[in-house]
Amino acid sequence: MPDVSSPAIAPRPQRRPWLLGVWTAIALGFLYLPIGVVVLMSVNQSRILSLPFTGFTLDWYGLALADAPLRAALGNSLKVAAIATLFATGLGLLAAFAIYRYQFWGKTAFRLALNLPILLPGVVTGVAMLAYFSSLELGLGLGTVILGHGVFGLPVALGPILTRLGQFPTALEEAAYDLGARPVQVFRDVLFPYIRSAVVAGALLAFTLSFDEVVVTIFLTGRDNTLPMEIWGRLRTNITPEIAAVATVILTVSSILVVASQRNSAPPSA
Amino acid sequence: MPDVSSPAIAPRPQRRPWLLGVWTAIALGFLYLPIGVVVLMSVNQSRILSLPFTGFTLDWYGLALADAPLRAALGNSLKVAAIATLFATGLGLLAAFAIYRYQFWGKTAFRLALNLPILLPGVVTGVAMLAYFSSLELGLGLGTVILGHGVFGLPVALGPILTRLGQFPTALEEAAYDLGARPVQVFRDVLFPYIRSAVVAGALLAFTLSFDEVVVTIFLTGRDNTLPMEIWGRLRTNITPEIAAVATVILTVSSILVVASQRNSAPPSA
Amino acid sequence: MQTQSLVYLDRVSKLYRSGGAEIYAVRDVTLAVQAGEFFSLLGSSGSGKTTTLRLIGGFEQPEYGEVYLNGEVVTTQPPYCRPVHTVFQSYALFPHLSVAENIAYPLAIARTPREEIDAQVRDALKMFQIPELGDRRPHQLSGGQQQRVALARALISRPKVLLLDEPLSALDAKIRDEVRQELKAVQRQTNLTFIYVTHDQDEALALSDRIAVMDQGQVQQLGTPRDIYDAPASLFVAQFIGKANFLRGTIVDVAGDRATVLVNGLALQARLSSPAPALNTEVTLMVRPERLRLSSAADTQSSTHFLENQVSATLTQSTYIGAVQELRLTTAVGDLLTTQLGQAPIHASSSFTLSWQAEDCLVLPVD
Amino acid sequence: MQTQSLVYLDRVSKLYRSGGAEIYAVRDVTLAVQAGEFFSLLGSSGSGKTTTLRLIGGFEQPEYGEVYLNGEVVTTQPPYCRPVHTVFQSYALFPHLSVAENIAYPLAIARTPREEIDAQVRDALKMFQIPELGDRRPHQLSGGQQQRVALARALISRPKVLLLDEPLSALDAKIRDEVRQELKAVQRQTNLTFIYVTHDQDEALALSDRIAVMDQGQVQQLGTPRDIYDAPASLFVAQFIGKANFLRGTIVDVAGDRATVLVNGLALQARLSSPAPALNTEVTLMVRPERLRLSSAADTQSSTHFLENQVSATLTQSTYIGAVQELRLTTAVGDLLTTQLGQAPIHASSSFTLSWQAEDCLVLPVD
Lengths: 270, 270, 367, 367
What we know:
In chain A, 74% of the residues lie in helices and 0% in strands.
């Protein structure tokens, strides 16, 4: 054992990036504060949507809960999001496999095309779909909204699945074949367990997207409103703390879904 | 040299995934067709936005070009997008470096917070910013739109830069220091050349986002319209082939920007 | 026909298309592996050794030729129909299954009854000395332990042939030696046929009954380790396996399997590999460094005077690498490298004699 | 004080914090490297060898102790102020610059005039035998060529010390040998001080003037290659460097630097490393496999009868690996491994004799 009685030179203090710290504080404040303000207003006793804080209350949440049109809109939103998510995730899974497994003509175009809906301006695709559905003589309503959200959700659901499949070690698949498993068994025993959490992540993202979407929905819906549409409609006329309460709820649910989705994005430890 | 006169067994034909091909065709058609319809309408002689095709014309483009409000809206859009992109890319670059270089308290929260604007529903953040800017007594107008788009563009610009920085081999930086370069020279000679194309990619994405954005813009603008807003306003009243022409132009420009951005996303060959 | 061999490849070729051109990954390979053999495919990356293994495993199908297992054509059969298992370079353990579930997988697929699976897995864990690891996940194991689990899984349903694709390359140098011994022991115990792919010549020489040296998709030489080391069939094999000295010369006399070769004016005695080249053709002579005897020039009573070839030499460089010393010497026939298993430091001195047997000096074609 | 050495580390420690605990990456290391020396830091991963190199290069700063270069304290100086350059394991060539621009970089930074830079770069390209590669980009080069460019770039501004961090580990086995020779030649030509980090004992033994064997952040032994191979200071070093046989025994007699050790009832003669252990303590004997002489038991006239230690042995396993054969034998003192540089196949026979000199048999502490 060596003698550790060296002359103790005190460890140098690490240089701290103060300037950066200040910048961080500003940036965080700038991004977070607006959202903080809305949350604050939803529990503020004041009738008009403004500061300062006059007293804590949960009345606006109660009011929002009792509001029939808001509840109908929530029901519509959940219905649309659920069906569109199923549609997007199912097609996304198929498309991901097609890209992963097969070499086919137009594969690059196929991948690009799948991403088109999220890359292009919502106004343009909204108009495009409206014109298309009209020419197909599909009556506007929740059905067309679901179709539209499904198309938008497809690339969102596809993303995590495709990423995970790209990390899938081919040797695992070959090992299963080698040990006697037939294609269906290989999928069930090896491939799907590996991508399962990515499928969940993709579905959660697609659900969030559908639940929050406004631009395309406006073009494709008939008389039925989804929740963000209903909020929007009211915002144009009258901003109330009740709306702030609903916004806070949407915010919370969206955040939980996104965090849950990111949790599911890590591949299984190999 | 071995004898290559083996009994020629014809190479087996590869199994082609026919079912998948059909599915692909439907999916592509479903995604592409609506957009195709809009493009078609923009060059259709018919006055009303509908099929069938009655004859080719570029008149609607001429009409759109001569339309003063449209031109004003385009000017606004370009101005907003340019300034917001500068803002978003500059801050994104700083934030990316902060995350790459320093360990600091709240780093994970910082990263999550930076992504918040694109993860949260536009309606909620739109309301939040409106309320926030109002309470700061900032007059609504292009200035507030630029601020809003800058905040939204930040995570979009940050993404590619952060990804590229994550791939940057630390050894390159150490080699430059080792060979006598001071920190500023290291940044100029080694680090920036490595991430340059990612900065360009990020800026292009931020520009596209700002150019196409509607939801937040509605809340933050005063009397000035951006191009998508102007289109939208007209769509609610009267859908004309002139609008289809503008939509086609936006579509083309957006696609070019996105493709250019993706081209810039590959790291320099090491 | 050798279709009665356990594994038989009959003029097998595998093509890849790369930018319009067709490239042979494996070209016209014919191989017969007998039951119970430890057979190695040795080559550098891109030599076609792994593709050959994958053709036997069923992961690739050849464009030309046929693959026989146990006398039956299996050329187009998928991997799950072949009585052949593989140990992958990455081990390919299923990450979401425990060690015991991994090992049980081939039995579970074959619908073996629960109790029987449990018993066999317990035996396998015992045999591979990892009885306490059954409940762990693969990522909790060391490299050596993962290797054992992969081996146990591949062996549990008693395949006819075990294919091993560089199974030691992911291990540390120190543990690799140990696992190599275990592998050989397992093969001896089970008396299974092993087909082993490696780029490591020491590994191939130490483990194999027979070796096929591959290059550019073709088998360059097939033989026992001793054949390949002592009598390489070509300059390529001689350069690929071990270290060697090469001398250019002209063949001037042939008598039986002995030849006299003129190198820089000196006549050297060498051994002929069939077929004998014509007189006055250029040839390459190969001598292994450890077959050169080094003696002090003064020492005439040395036991080296009966060796056929003798040249005087000057030491130019000596490198000490533990067990052996590598000495570089300048001689009238060219620079020669010799390896001495030695303790005493050898210092540069004006005169040494290098001598070697004609038996150890092989005549090879120029290229 | 050895501050007049070119590089001197004075009781240097580097700590890492890992989940509350403090871990020594380098612990109390004192080293002096002389000008013109080829000095190696040898150890497995996590031994602290790379951290030690990074402390000299200035990429890390120690919590305790001081780093001297040329007699001056440089402990807290950044890398760009130290007259020391590094060749990185990954070469770290700038991907967006050409080969010539890469090599010119240290001169450009130092604001050397354009013409002088051009001339020096041309010379460097010539010296490293890559004059035609100046306009290429790094990714167009082979591994060996990249290595040369990295070396040229590190040497062009004539540093006092060159640090090399496993510079050969990214190369193929075949080319590694060649580059190793080149590296040694460059060091001889330039007469520069090289500090070389490696985990490969053959590399360290073949190249170095002196070697520091590191483990757990500490220097376990410092000496010439021959010292470290022939007289390891501890069981750890003996196990880490080369192959060895270890025998447990009890020391029963000491005379000068010779000891008699009882192993399984047999008295063996061995060499003592200082300090001599007390009588009747347990010790470990180490013998290198190539120091064991194998002779047929019948052969009494053999030249081995003057060796101090003799045991009869039975062959259990022989492995042929080209130049050498590894033989495992069972003896009264335990299983022994011996290496024979041999051509003739040795077959299992009932009786051999293994003999070795007391000089080659080292007494080491039990653990």
